Amino acid sequence: MRYCLLLLMVAGFFSAAGCAVPPAGNPVETGYVSRVEDPQAKALYHYGRFRLLFDEGKNDEAEAALREAIGFDPENEELRFALAEFFIEMDQIKQAVRAVEDILIRNPNSAKAHLRLGNAYFGSRQPERAIPHFRKLLELDPDQEQVRLQLAIALARSGEAGQAIEELKELLRRSPDSQAGRLALARLYRETKLDALAIEEYRSLIQRHPELTHVSLELGLLYEERRQWNDALGVFRAALAKDPLEFSLRHHLARVYVGMKRYADALNELQTIVELKPDDFDARRKIGLIYLEQEKWDKAITVFREILALRPGLEPVRYYLGTALERKDEWAAALDAFGKIAEDSPLYDDAVAHMSYIYVQTGRNSDAIALLEERLQKPEPRPQIFYYLAVLRLGSGDHAKALAVLDQGLASYPDDADLLYEKGLILERLGESGKAREVMRQVVAADPDHAEALNFLAYSLAEDNLDLAEAAAMAERAVALKPAGHILDTLGWVYYRLGRFEEARKAIDEASRLLPDDDVIYEHLGDVLSALDKAVLSQAAYQKALELNPDNQSVRDKLQRLGRPE
Description:
- By secondary structure, the protein is mainly alpha-helical.
- The protein is about 75% helix and about 0% strand.
- The longest helix is centred in the first third of the chain and has 17 residues, at about 40-55.
């Protein structure tokens, strides 16, 4: 049988090589012509050897036979392609590429070679090397839709979005009904933040092919990203009307309703999914999360327990259950839920943090500390474990141990903003203001948007009357990030130090409205009003500060100097 197949293969190659092959049926009598010395016949012979040796797994001998065949017929592209295919089969990609490149050296217009190389480079994520081959193919045949699509994708991956868009436009000019081309153009517009153009292409594609549910999903997601809830709703509803059993659409609809805070509608969609598909645990989980968002703890607990009864291994659900129980102050049940989360779970450290919190809430501080210290003895504790243990140590008045825990955490997480910030606060309490500022600068370096660290630095500099221009910039940045009362007070205090009294008054006035029980803010307000020569108002502010904190000797002294003893 193998011999017969070889004869057929040889006959095929003779035909491909331009040699005469007798037709089927009665042979035509011709004179005998010997082809023993014909190079093409020798090439075919060695190709046949290659196939037999390759089938027998004798790869080195097979390669040698194929190279001998090429040596006898060096212009035969099919033999060279066979060599490239052999190298691909052997997972020798570089040799395969060289074999195809040899074809292009001999025939620069070989479409098959350009296609092979273009696809090889494209598939191996070397788009810049694929581009010239795809361009050559289009030069040879401009109507190759798939090639133009791949060229556009390769250009986009190479950072040439503008050229990619032009290629896709040309594709659609030649093939207006190309689904792949229009979808690729929509996606490229989306990636380059040209959302309006992306929406136009998505809508055009949906109009032409309303059955393409995945296109509706992409357009709806784009509207979601832009928080255009009503538009997203319209797209998902229209798609769902055509395919009511496409559950992914109902999931997206529910998410849009949540974005719109239409929780009842979101629950309705998710409950419909559960009725039709009871094993959709993601829908069940989302129902529980909506109840959590609504602070309907009992309903959330019921849902999460139902899920765990069916799928006890869903640890995120167990974590949500613990959270809901904790919010209801059902401490024992919450501890039980968190305690069942496995140590190798990504949620384990979060569970430990919650358990330590529960211990503190139930007066078991020593158990909380023991739990966190035990966690530190195990591999790779997350930063929050160090943070919570430091806070507990600080709460018990042990600054040294708190600092030691933070330094231990920072040895593993040197840029963790929370650990650095807590260390800065402790150093400030210990009277080491200079070191505290250094640490807070590290916080800002790690997280430039850390409003509290910016506020700390601004206030500290203002208190010491140092670098006031820098302090003002940091305070203004902090207020922009977080316009809280204590940060507005810092801004006002910096302005006061700079002599910008009207701006200071405005900021501290606003701070006093947000924090009406803060005696320091009223003391600052009194200082600003005094600087503005508004003695009566200044005295009133000081009096308010003293009412809030009768032990504030600084305010008593200021009132004394104003001639209005308290």
